[in-house]
Structure formats: C-alpha cells, structure tokens
Amino acid sequence: MSFSEFTAEDYKIIDQAWDGLKQQIDKRVKDPAELDIVRKAFEFANQAHKNIRRRSGEPYMLHPIEVAGIVVNEIGLGYKSIAAALLHDVVEDTSYTVDDIKSLFGNKIAMLVDGLTKIKTVLDNEDRKGRTVSTESMQAENFKRILLTLNDDVRVVLIKLADRLHNCRTIEFMPEHKRDKILSETMFIFIPLAHRLGLYGVKSEMENIWLRYKEPEAYASISERINKDIASRQKDIDEFVTPIEQALKAAGYSFQIKKRIKTPYSIWYKMQTKHVPFEQIFDLYAIRIIFDPLDDSGQNERNQAYLIFSTVTQLYSENQSRRRDWISQPKNNGYEALHCTLMSHAGVWMEVQIRSRRMDDIAEKGIAAHWAYKNEGYVTENDSEMDKWLKKVQEILLSNDVSALELLDIIHNDLISTEIVVFTPKGEQKSIVNGATALDFAYMIHSGIGSKAIAAKINMKLVPLSQPLKAGDQVEIITAANATPKMEWLQFLKTRYARSRVIDFFRDRREELVQSGARIFDERIHQMGFSQSNSNIRKFLDYCQLRDAEELFFRVGLGILGAEDFKKILTEDKLIKNDGTKLSPKDSEASKRKYSIAECCKPIPGDSVIGFLTEDHTVIVHKKSCPIAESLASKYGNRVVVPDWTAKEKEYPIRLSLKGIDRLGIMNDISFFISKTLGINMRRLSLWTEGGVFEGYIELLVKDKKILENMIDGLLKIEGIQNVLRTDI
C-alpha cells in the first residue's frame, strides 16, 4: 500500500465502482433499512481508506468494493456480509477499532470484521511495522484459527474466500516471491476449502489463476488448444443441443441450456495425473440443462430430473460407466445433479449435467445458497452433512496429540478427500472416506468390532483387513473373541479414529516400545548423517508437539513415525533458524547461494520453479506446481525466494513415457535419434508390447527444458510414436 492524494479521476473511479455494486445489491437486498446499513458501511470504509492506494496504483477502496461484489454475486450472502466485506480491512489498515465498528454497525457485523481481521493478520505473518512474527508452526496455527471460525460463523470464511479470490485476480502486481507464497497458500488451503463449501465458481477461477502463474507455458498452450477446439467444434455442439431443446420443449419444460468446456486447470490436472495428452481428455465438452420444476406435473423436482434424463438418453447413445447420480446421493458439499455422457452424431463424447434451478444455485454458490433455499422451505437430505464435517474438523483442532505442522497436512488432506458410500451386510448405507480400508470400516461401526477383527468379506468375497473399499461395496467384518489389534495395522489404516484406537491399545506395552523406538530413532538419524543429541531430539519434539522423549520413542516404536517422516522433519528443519525465526529472502545475498535440486519433482533449467532458502544459504529448487513445494510454501512463506537458476553446466535426469503402434525397428530408431542425432546421454530405454501396441519409458540426462522440448518434438515424428510425455522418475 502507498499514500498519495486522490485526484478527481480517482474519486470518479470509486463512485463508478460503487454504483455498479449498488445495482448488484439492489437485486439481493430489498429492505430499505438493510440497504442503508450497506451504504453507511461504504461511506465509512471509503473515508477510512482515503488517499490509500494498492500496489497497482489504484485507490484501495476498489478492493473492498470488488470483494463485496463477489460476496453478492458469486456467493450470494446478505446485507451483513456485504457490509463486513466493505469494512473488512478497516481495522487492520487504519486507526479504527472493532469497538468502533460495533458502535456504528452492531455486534454481528463487528464480529465478522473482527474474524476477518484476525485471519488477515495471521496469514500475513507480519505486524504493522513489517516485522516477522511467525514461528515454525505459525502457518498451521493460522489455518487452525481460520477453521475455528467455521464453528463461530461460516460467513467469515466465505468472505475471506471472496477476499482471497480478488487478491488472486490482481496478483500480477505482487513481487514474484510474494506471489508464489500467496498462490501456494491458495492451492493448499483456500481452493480445497472452496470445494468443500461447494463454491465451484470461486474454486475454478482460483485454480486457473494458480495455473497461469505456476505453469505459464502449460496454461498458454492449453488455452490456445481450447480456443482452436471450440472454433472447430462449435457447429457439432450446436447440432448436439438442438434435438435436446426440441424434445424438452415438446415435453413442456421451462429450461435453460448452458455450454461448458473444461477449464485449463482441470485439463492440465487430468493430463498430469492420468499421463495423457490433450487429445485424450475424455470429457472436454459438457452442456448443462437447468430446469424450472413444473408445479402441475404431479412429479417432484427430483423425479422431473430423472424424466429429463430419460428424454435425452433416448436421443443419443450413453456411456453408462460414466453415469453419476448426485441426486439420490448428494455430495458432502450439497451438490446435486445427474451426469451422463452421450455420443454426439459427430462422434464426440458430450457430458450432460441435469439440474433444477435450486440445484444449480447450490452448485454455483455452495453452502450460502443451501441456507437460502432451506430458509424458504426447501429441506434436503444433506442438511446435516456440513455439520458432520465441521464437527470432525473441531475434533482434530482440539486434539493434543498432533503437531501444528502435521495438523495443516491432516486438515488439508481432509479438505480434499471425498467420501464413498458402502453398505453393511443388512444393506444399511454408510459413508466413509475414499481410500479407507475394511478395518477402517470395522472401527467406524464400533471400536470393539475393529479391535476383534481378523478378516473381512467384500461383496461375499474373503479379503484381508487392509483391502481398500470401493463405492457400492457391501462389507462384512469377521471377528474372533481372542483377537487383538496389531501394530502393522497402523501402516494401512486411513481414518484418524481407527488409528487413535489402535495407538491407545498399545499403551500397555509402552516401556517395551519406548526402548525399541529409541534404538530405531538412533539408527535412522545416524543413517541420515545426524546424531541422537538433545538438539535433534528437540527438533522432533517441537515438530510433533510432544512433551518428552519417551512419548516420541513410543511413537517411533509403534511405527507412527516412519523413515519418510524422519526425512521430512529433518528437511523442513533446514528452513528454520536455531532461534525459531524464519529467514527472509533478504537474509542471504544471491551471490552466496548454492542450489539443490528437490528430489520430489526434479526440476531442470527452463522449468517454472520456486526456491526455499535454508539457514546455510542453500536454495532448494522445486517446480512451482510440485505438491511438496505447495505444502512448504503454505507453511514457510517467508522462506520463498525466486531462484536465479539459469546455469547449464550440469545435466539433469528426466523420464519420458512413450506410447504408440509397435513395428519392427522402432527401438533402434528411438535410440539412434537420441544418441546419434541429438547426442544426449541416454541412461535407460525400456519398451514392452501387447496386442500390437507398445508403451515404455526413456531415462536420460538433459541440460535444460528447451533441449527436452526439441527431443519430444523429434520423437513424435518417428513412425509409430503417438504419445510422448515427461513423467516423474
């Protein structure tokens, strides 16, 4: 922020922005008294932010106006939230206090502003004089505070999401290291939170902004491909939609059809996780049928959705394996819709989403719309799902056996996890986290059943307790009277409750496990080049938030802290000074820095990269899109630096995965091209064939990304090769 006298043009810009917001508010807020409060909030905030500018140079007041606009249009909150959005930076950035807000606007609006101020303060990790006040666990504590506000008033988090979205929209004005911190924090915390709260539009826009800055080349390439594909397919899409429109009109429905194409981020994510090129993205196109239920049809809203589904599936062939019924079983965030994938007459797969107007509002605006419809008399079967999730979050937050840094990972994983529906032997429906095992199910039913379990039957077939569950499985647990929990269960249990029950069982063997844990601890840290000193033990105690070494060794003996945990703790410790404070990017001159390549993502020069500065002036270089880097940046934002990493004297290992049509001599052609034509050092070439189709990989050393791209282009010109992708080693 900066200070300079506003010009007449500045005041005009603010007035125009406010006029635009007023038009939006008038559609949402009808009570004149409520409108007066919103107007009063604008006038107060406008005066408080007078002559204050953002990094872009524009008047600061435009930011709260834009945040309020997101609150109205994309989240659908009411006048108190709109007023709080307009006031959300007043306490943090001016001399006004929460008490001032309370006296002018009442307790509720003041409480919302206070909650938003606290979140902003802890996320920025700086006091008003710019001094760093964070500790190694502060970022996790920040997230803990954010989530605790869910139980006070979820509107605080919803307004904060609007604030974060607008900050992302204007992130180009941030310096790169600050931009990387904000985007990593957004991906690790706010995007999963938006997803869990059902804010699809907010989530998608944040994801696309993340991709635009984290992987700019991929974003530009995918966006260009999308535009070309739409131009060439527009006629096919229109011809697909026309018969559907005619059939629904003939049936008497009032409806709207929206055309949708997958976002650049969702395409990129599928390309990365499925290792497929753009051409193999299955559900690139979709249309959305949004209908207004017919009151005189004799059918309720849900039944009408099924009738529309029947109508459209009579027009085109359906891929039944891709049918999704989120009406009979809504998602945890309240999402309801019917999805089906149909083959157009032009030979293109098209996803069709069927929603009522109410379902569409909830899908786009999430939990806020859910409340609105509930208040207007609509009641869904999903009313208690958010309460269940909030209760689970509260249990995690209040637990004492998890470190602050572990907590961030646990809740992040919970935010991004999805649930599946399984059935008991009697057909009772149960929801459990995706990836859970039969033993997790046993403990969910009753801790006594889990403790006595020896095997399971899934769909009448005998399986081990470690068997992961799939949606629709019918699960029966086999128990034995003399059975007891096993330590190895901790290696595959996925749910926190089940793991806690197993840990509690072994406390009777504490002394024995402490002794074995101490021995394992000593062996592991010696293998990593450390010793069992008091300072190293303290690192683990601080990370795990444990009071004594005995409890630490007990957990090591149980296998809770494995080899990967040791590596993570000692690696992350490099990002912390001995006095517990963080280094800023200015603490080390660039000329003194050494560079170390992260093993998790193995970047090469030319990749979009992010750096983390350690206390010995080493910069650990990751790809910007690396999940480990995202986690680190969300915890250690003040350690983020921009690597000056252009040296090409080294060669870096990469792997290329290949697919294509097999033919005689193709391996020789690949080998000749790489070794003779390009002169690149190939470490391994492995291909295998089945049914005339080959796939495999090449491991080789390259100096930079440009050489890699030239090699991919050349490989694709070899007869038979249809797909070349860079994949992790």
Please explain how this structure is put together.
The chain is of the alpha+beta class and 729 residues long. Helix content is 50%, strand content 16%. It contains 28 helices and 21 strands. Strands 3, 4, 5, 6, 7 and 8 form a six-stranded mixed beta sheet that branches. A hairpin with a 4-residue loop joins strand 15 and strand 16. Helix 7 packs antiparallel against helix 8.
Keyphrases for this structure?
729 residues; four-stranded mixed sheet; globular
Summarize the structure.
With 729 residues, the chain is of the alpha+beta class. It contains 28 helices and 21 strands. The two termini are 44 Å apart.
Determine the N-to-C terminus distance.
44 Å
List low-confidence stretches: 126-137, 376-383, 576-588
Q: How much is the radius of gyration in Å?
A: 28 Å
Which structural class should the secondary elements be placed in? alpha+beta
Shape: globular
Strand content: 15-25%
Helix content: 40-55%
Mean pLDDT: 82
DSSP summary, beta strand count: 21
Specify the number of helices.
28
* Main sheet specs: 6 strands, mixed
How do the helices and strands line up, and which of them pair or pack?
Elements: E1 2-3, H1 8-28, H2 32-48, E2 52-53, H3 62-75, H4 79-87, H5 90-93, H6 98-105, H7 107-124, H8 138-152, H9 154-169, H10 176-196, H11 200-214, H12 216-250, E3 254-261, H13 264-274, E4 285-292, H14 301-313, E5 317-318, E6 324-325, E7 338-343, E8 349-356, H15 357-365, H16 367-375, H17 385-398, H18 404-416, E9 419-423, E10 429-433, H19 438-445, H20 447-451, E11 453-458, E12 461-463, E13 475-479, H21 496-505, H22 510-527, H23 534-544, H24 549-558, H25 563-573, E14 594-597, E15 609-613, E16 618-623, H26 627-635, E17 640-641, E18 652-661, H27 666-677, E19 682-690, E20 693-702, H28 705-716, E21 721-727
Parallel strand pairs: 4-8, 14-16
Antiparallel strand pairs: 1-2, 3-4, 5-7, 6-7, 7-8, 9-10, 11-12, 11-13, 15-16, 15-17, 18-20, 18-21, 19-20
Helix pairs in contact: 1-3, 2-4, 3-4, 3-9, 4-7, 6-7, 7-8, 7-9, 8-9, 8-17, 8-18, 9-10, 9-11, 10-11, 10-26, 11-12, 11-13, 12-13, 15-16, 22-24
